[in-house]
Amino acid sequence: MNTRTLPRLAVLSVAALLLGGCAAQPPSESAAADPSETHQATPAADASPRLVTTYDGGVAVLDAGTLQVLAEFEMEGFNRVNPAGDGRHVIISTADAFKVLDTGAWTEDDGARQVAEPVLTGIEFAASKPGHVVHHAGRTVLFSDGTGVVESFATADLAGGRPETQIHTAAQAHHGVAVELANGELVLTLGNDEQRPGIAVLDADRSEILRNEDCPGVHGEATAANEAVVIGCETGVLVYADGAITKISSPDAYGRIGNQTGSEESPVTLGDYKSDPDAELERPQRISLVNTATKQLQLVDLGTSYSFRSLARGPHGEALVLGTDGALHSIDPDSGEITASTPVIAAWEEPLEWQQPRPTLTVVDHTAYITDPAANTISAVDIESGTVTESGVLEHTPNELTGVTG
């Protein structure tokens, strides 16, 4: 394992590969590029995965292979990051807009792969309380909690500037989420400031075709193989698949599944599981596995707690959980068997406030990346071998983390 201090910007050997972009200022400044301009780039023979982490006062872009910091952008407030879905762009949920960050992972020029400098593109989607970002089937969907506005666009169009969007507004504003399927259908949560009871399914023309309100506290989504969409409830989950909505109930009267992750390689979604409605902050030790094919829910006791930023999927559909014991646990999604546990960081405890930094897990291809805010470190773990292959120290305390494949 290699451990080293990571500089604020890339070392010369890496920076030499990153020719100037369209921004007039260096990438460590906060000004954005003109979204109508294109990037200067250099040829790249292989994929160039990138990581994006937030910290108090900004966002950093890292080379996923070397863990070198390639660029930093000043950004006030608490910001959230999600991959746009094209292997290149990341969408940042800020206080009043969804902002698009080009990680410089790649561009296309006459069919040749290129590497460019990370840059804030200047592409923004104004929103009141920007929330969930979901990409699926070549579409990216943004949900505004303050207005219930759902804005979607063809993911690939980000490479050409601000894309043309399709807008639908939910009946009432709420903390929600929406998923657009390959046939144009939209799976959309229902709710308002007082309750969130379920979901509706809209056709491509945005007319409602199905509804289920047996899902109190609806929260979170995941899409499994064959476009099965799973939405979490305080009493289990709702599964939309093959034109029907199915309720799968929790074994407990209160069995909340609120944060989930899916994989196209598996019919099973991985979710959290909380069973104490009176806890100030429940630190659960069980995770949920929802089989969308058999409509079965399985609970697995990890023997350690975790947080909502602890869940991810491996390249073959493995269920991955970062425990508060500091280990990365790999679970067979079909059997629920814990197949491997790799020690990565020191033991930790989830903070009471969800916006506070805590160890975070994200996966790019065959590598899991784990941050440790207590030590300001980031580590890379080969999922198949269960070995830590790279580790480095960051200048800023990392909070959120995501990655793109390049």
- Helical run tally: 1
> Would you report the number of β strands?
36
Stretches with pLDDT under 50, minimum 5 residues:
2-32, 36-40
Structural class: mainly beta
Helix content: under 10%
Largest sheet: 5 strands, mixed
Radius of gyration: 20 Å
Our estimate of the beta-strand percent is over 45%
| Average pLDDT reading | 90
Multimeric organization: single chain
- Spatial shape: globular
Strand order of the largest sheet: 1-35-34-33-32
Question: What distinguishing features does this structure have?
Answer:
four-stranded antiparallel sheet, disordered N terminus, mainly beta, 406 residues, single chain
Describe this structure in words.
The chain has 406 residues and is mainly β. Helices cover 1% and strands 45% of the residues. The protein has one helix and 36 strands. The chain has one helix at 12-15, and strands at residues 2-5, 41-43, 50-55, 58-63, 69-74, 80-83, 89-93, 97-102, 107-109, 112-116, 119-126, 130-136, 139-144, 149-154, 166-169, 178-180, 186-190, 198-202, 208-212, 219-223, 229-233, 236-241, 244-249, 260-261, 268-271, 286-291, 296-301, 311-313, 319-322, 327-331, 338-343, 360-364, 367-372, 377-382, 387-393, 401-404. The chain has a five-stranded mixed sheet with strand order 1-35-34-33-32, with no helix packed on it. Strand 4 (58-63) and strand 5 form a beta hairpin. It is globular and about 45 Å long. The two termini are 24 Å apart. Mean pLDDT is 90; it is low at 2-32 and 36-40.
